[in-house]
Amino acid sequence: MRLKKAAEQESLPSVMDLPVGGMTYAQCPALWTFFQGRTLASERMPIKVFDRSGTSHRYESGGLNGIERVDEFHRMELVKLGAREQTVEAAGALAEYFKRLFEESDEWLEFQNLSINGTTYPKGFTVKLQSGEPLWSGCSGIGLERWTAVFIAQKGPDPSKWPKAMRELYGETPRGIRFL
User: What's the pTM value of the predicted model, to 2 decimals?
Assistant: First the structure.
């Protein structure tokens, strides 16, 4: 493939296994199979779920290279389920938290999402509320590689230039590999 810039389709079965599953392009779909086809008790809303069940895969390089180019990323997902008002309120609270968390940055780099998906996933996975009211959802995927890339882009790789709180979390820089 690399040499000819074309795949010899007849030889693919000899070098590949049959697929056994799929990879998600977005953050929260992995969680929805747990709720699929179920009805949720209205008095338990809103539900807030912390999910770190896997990686997300998508080609989003767009001319980027190095650490900021992401094809696969390890993510944590904050998912909110509930009535419309509950989901919008939870998203607003999370947006305020992110704002406080990153407010001391003097430069802005977009790297974090916060989505209110409405009824898209509940309808797609046939998840309902006991009350019959439409179930809404929202999510915020936290890509660890993205957070690291943005932090280093803003603060640099030298821990002595990082905010005190981050230096305390990081601790001492480990000794590097030494070749002879």
Answer: 0.69
